[in-house]
Amino acid sequence: MSASYYDDFLSKLPSTPDWSPSDERSPHLPGTEQTLLEPHTYISSMPGKDIRGKMIEAFNLWLHVPEDTLAVIARVVGMLHNASLLMDDVEDDSQLRRGIPVAHKIYGIPQTINSANYVYFRAYQELFKLRELDRQDGGIPPKVELDRMVT
Fold first, then answer.
1. Residue predicted with more confidence, 34 or 141
2. Residues 92-145: pLDDT tens digits?
3. Alpha carbon 45 to chain centroid distance?
4. Strands 96-97 vs 100-101: parallel, antiparallel or unpaired
5. CA torsion 121→126→129→134, rounded to 10°?
6. At residue 40, does pLDDT exceed 80?
7. What confidence tier does 150 reach under pLDDT thresholds 50, 70, 90?
8. 3-class SS of residue 101
9. How many CB atoms sit inside 10 A of residue 64's CB?
């Protein structure tokens, strides 16, 4: 099958993909945010080998990070990884990722880039949750130190 087969892949998809977040599964997302996140939701619905998750678990055997803090860290790492894959596929004009058509061939380059960039900012917002955990535990660096570490 040639790469040109995937150039018009959108016309080959069903009108309502089953991986789209529904209002029931994502009631906190307004419709426009849900639309903006579609390319990221799409790539996130195709699990990879989860090497980053396994490494986080392995390091935590030594570090003993509290579970709620570790969950935020793992979520941020996953968000950043998938957003970077979206950008990488656009930059390389890839056709397939994990055996299926890449997001930018389905949603277009502008929406895919916007989605990836938005997820970068959402990941930073997730890091702010660590501040809330800090107020509860007192174990996270102060605000200025956290900002320095992530910027």
1. 34
2. 999 999 899 999 999 999 999 999 999 999 998 888 878 776 666 655 555 565
3. 10
4. antiparallel
5. -90
6. yes
7. low
8. strand
9. 7
Q: Which residues pair with 61 in a beta bridge?
A: none
* Measured distance CA(19)–CA(42) in Å, rounded: 7
Contact between 104 and 112 under an 8 Å Cβ cutoff? The reply is yes
Do the Cβ atoms of 99 and 146 come closer than 8 Å? no
pLDDT above 50 for 23 = no
| Residue 109 near residue 94, CB atoms below 8 Å | no
For residue 128, CA distances in Å to 8, 23, 25, 76, 146 come to 40, 25, 23, 11, 9
Instruction: Enumerate the H helices of the chain as residue ranges.
Output: 31-44, 51-63, 67-92, 103-107, 109-137, 143-150
Amino acid symbol at 53: G
What are the CA-CA distances from residue 78 to residues 40, 74, 104, 138 (Å)? 11, 6, 19, 25
Q: What is the pLDDT of residues 75-92, one digit of tens each?
A: 999 999 999 999 999 999
